[in-house]
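Please check this today:
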Amino acid sequence: MIDFSALWGFTVIVGLLTLTPGLDTALILRTAALGRRRRAWGVVLGIQAGTLTWGVFTSLGVTALLTASHLAYTILRWAGAAYLVWMGGRMVWSARRRRAGAAAADGDHGAGQAEIGERNTVRGGWRQGTLTNLLNPKVGAFYVAVLPQFLPAGSSHLAMGVLLAGVHVVLGALWSSLLIGCARMLRDVLRRESARRVLDRVTGTVIGAFGIRLALSD
């Protein structure tokens, strides 16, 4: 039997979490603003797949390892930090390369070309979104700390956990849809190569900063 009070309480918490700007927001906005709509939706699907995975693992008690084992948490934390720093650095380096090799003024047709190794595909975006979410131990720690409080005694922890994680997925998908819609309004501005370089530098710096912060966090 579904505990609607628990369902409502969890919805409020993850709703506020979803609306809080963070790594996912930066990644989705940057991808969509560059006109890579298929890849942006891939990123959204990947992030939500990661969220659902954390919910299932927590319901099964697997992610308790992150809180019980300092070594396991540290390994995942450093892996996630390295991935974020690499991804952010790649964006910044790509922006510098395009600036150094630019042969035309802003607005040139070459501005619409995709970066090397970052194709406008759902699969590529899904892989990026999934890795970003699953390599963030703070998402797992959040689920370990919060989800058990909303699993009623006597209920199926797996079924209820999947339901609650599903609520988080739906809210995340709806918010991401709004972000993608807003980002599309910026495409005219981002046709200019200079604007694209600024977006990549800013987003890359933000993502890299998240990685450094994750590496230095306790």
In short: The radius of gyration is 19 Å. The chain has one domain: 4-216. Residues 4-216 form one domain.
